Amino acid sequence: MTPARNGRHDREHIVGVALDLLDRYGLPDLTMRRLAAELEVQPSALYWHFASKQDLLAAVADRILERIPAPQGDLLATARRVRDALLAYRDGAEVVLSSAALRPGPSRAHEALRAALGESAPGGADIAATAVLQFILGHTSLVQQRMHGESHGAAADAPDQDAAVFDAGILMLTRGAGAADPIAARG
Amino acid sequence: MTPARNGRHDREHIVGVALDLLDRYGLPDLTMRRLAAELEVQPSALYWHFASKQDLLAAVADRILERIPAPQGDLLATARRVRDALLAYRDGAEVVLSSAALRPGPSRAHEALRAALGESAPGGADIAATAVLQFILGHTSLVQQRMHGESHGAAADAPDQDAAVFDAGILMLTRGAGAADPIAARG
DNA sequence: ACCTGAACACCGTTCAAGT
DNA sequence: ACCTGAACACCGTTCAAGT
Predict the structure, then answer these.
(1) Which InterPro entries match (chains A, B) (predicted)?
(2) Could you tell me where the DSSP H helices lie in chain B?
(3) B70-180 in CATH: which number?
């Protein structure tokens, strides 16, 4: 049932190792050469499985997005689940943001948000879901980049502040979309 | 009145050349070595003026943000001005997003949005302005990255679609913040 | 089908030394 | 004060050749 696997590594396995490297060392240190070394293979071997580093990162982004559960609940709860999927791996938001730009169609994240928005958004739920996703990606990218910027330097007074900004943003977007008030619902 | 300038290049001049290089070739091709070549100088010479490439990019980001006019008008108009400042240079949003993460205090963009928001936002105008800025950075980064992704390949059917998503996002955020309805106001 | 070996054309950064 | 020259430790990608 599993697809042909004659070589030592297939795409799925390589993406898994890449994701582990990403989480441990961050995006700047996720290089084709380090990934190859981790797989005990020459760097050129990766180019049989992936056309380019961008292609590899797109597959990594898809894997990150798979963590998003099936659509369920209101917008705030759904948005938090998308954010948490991005936060689950170091630099997850930046990877998804970078490769989301190349994709034309809707992603798993977009679909979840669209389902939570219903039909009542101004200009269509599709457009509203896109806007919400863009906020989540911008917010989470900023948060994650600040994380290793202050890893051994500045003050780390932001854990609660970030959550407050996120909730405020989603709340504002929710009210503007005319959806049910999430204040009454539990997060 | 101008500060001491014995050498061939000072920080202001270098940032200007870097910004020109950014706009012509994009962020991936804005390297210290190319910048040095453009200035007809050795790469190591740049490290007398800037501590690192990140330091240089932070100065470039500040220069991009200077294009934002003084606070004036409602949130939609202000948000559009911030977006347009980012769009004025290739990859402008990504540069600002990357170096905004390291800055703790509020930027020129944040101040403009905060002024437009008034005092009526839930959780405070400061938090609301941060959320709006994060949406703008996420949105514009996505738009700009898609631009040179499709420069010689896929369909470019997105000029109006992007503006619709942006306006919808700001509109939703505006209503949620309880500010004056921007539909009645002209953009 | 899958990988090696070697090369090409680059990177950011440091540091002694020059002027 | 400002820059050169040379080096260090890397990059992504291609491609003939092996098995």
Answers:
(1) Homeodomain-like_sf, HTH-type_TetR-like_transc_reg, HTH_TetR, Tet_transcr_reg_TetR-rel_C_sf
(2) 11-25, 32-38, 46-49, 53-65, 75-87, 92-100, 108-117, 125-149, 159-177
(3) 1.10.357
